[in-house]
Design goal:
The protein is α+β, with helices and mostly antiparallel strands. It has a single domain (5-87), classed as RNA-binding S4 domain (Structural Genomics Hypothetical 15.5 Kd Protein In mrcA-pckA Intergenic Region, Chain A, Roll). The protein contains three helices and seven strands. Strands 3-2-5-6-7 form a five-stranded antiparallel beta sheet, with no helix packed on it. A hairpin with a 2-residue loop joins strand 5 (50-55) and strand 6. The longest helix has 9 residues, at 20-28. The relative contact order is 0.23. Residues 5-69 form the RNA-binding S4 domain. One of its GO terms (biological process) is rescue of stalled ribosome.
């Protein structure tokens, strides 16, 4: 059981973002924050951390429940809880 994990790896393993390269890009653009602080791809995350991810028109707030080095698809969704999902309306 991992105690902490790189943000980009967590996003990939948990399948919140399918590919690590994409997770890295999103983080580098400053679209992810961990506990209210803008995070880099290498930021270490741990259980209980709150992530806010901005995907284009959608903002997802999730809490990390579990860290796994490798997770099968069925287990991946148990790694986090979606707290809030918001859509930005087009202007």
């Amino acid at each position: 059981m991992a105690v902490s994990m790189r943000l980009d790896k967590f996003l990939k393993v948990s399948r919140l973002i399918k590919r690590r390269t994409v997770a890295k890009e999103v983080a580098e653009k400053g679209r992810i924050s961990v506990n209210g602080t803008v995070a880099k791809p290498g930021t270490n995350v741990k259980e209980g951390d709150e992530l806010i991810i901005k995907f284009g028109q959608k903002t997802v707030t999730a809490r990390i429940d579990r860290l796994e080095e490798n997770a099968r698809k069925e287990v991946a969704t148990e790694m986090y809880t979606i707290l809030k999902e918001e859509r930005k309306e087009e202007e």
